[in-house]
Amino acid sequence: MVVTESRRVASIAAREREGGAAITTDDPRPDPLLDASDATLAARARDGDIHAYEVIARRHGPLMRVYAARLLGADADSDDVVQDAFLTAWRRLADLENPAQIRNWLMRIVSNKSIDRLRARREHDDIDAWDPPARRSQTPDRVVEARLQMDAMWSALERLPLDQRRCWLLRETAGYSYTEIAEALGMSVSTVRGRIARARTFLITEMEAWR
């Protein structure tokens, strides 16, 4: 039963990713769930209603995909991250305390998945993929220095508290506004500003030796 449900959820996520046809049921009458609130859909999904979860996926999947793509900078990666986020969310629906906050909860999950993917890239990709191509006029010493500086920046980012790192990455690498970050992460604009300010102060201090 669990395996079957997981496969159905994976199928839902795949259809949402591909922009599949509108949700249909065997009942010819209009689907009342299409106009249901997030709280109603999440509560039903938490009780095992996969159709309600499909409506959630179609409603919030596009925002999750844009969020992941802007953070990761790769459409293929963002598709995988969003699909993984939907599977994880389905398995953890019992942990959702407030069904009305399903969107913010999903955004936090996809944020965690995106940051995990960024960390995996950092650990496994060739470092040249992370650095701008060296100009011909650059000496080997300058190339090495640039790579060491990139290492130092990533190391400093990883020492930031997770919420500060999320906010900083969305602001500095994805170009999100403070309001967009607040909406995506479910926090106030003032909180976002404060966390980004603290992250910048920390990074400036940590990178002082490279200035």
From TrEMBL:
Keywords: DNA-binding, Sigma factor, Transcription, Transcription regulation. One of its GO terms (molecular function) is sigma factor activity. Residues 57-122 form the RNA polymerase sigma-70 region domain. It holds the Pfam family Sigma70_r4_2. CDD domains: Sigma70_r4. GO terms for biological process: DNA-templated transcription initiation. Belongs to the sigma-70 factor family. ECF subfamily. This is RNA polymerase sigma-70 factor (ECF subfamily).
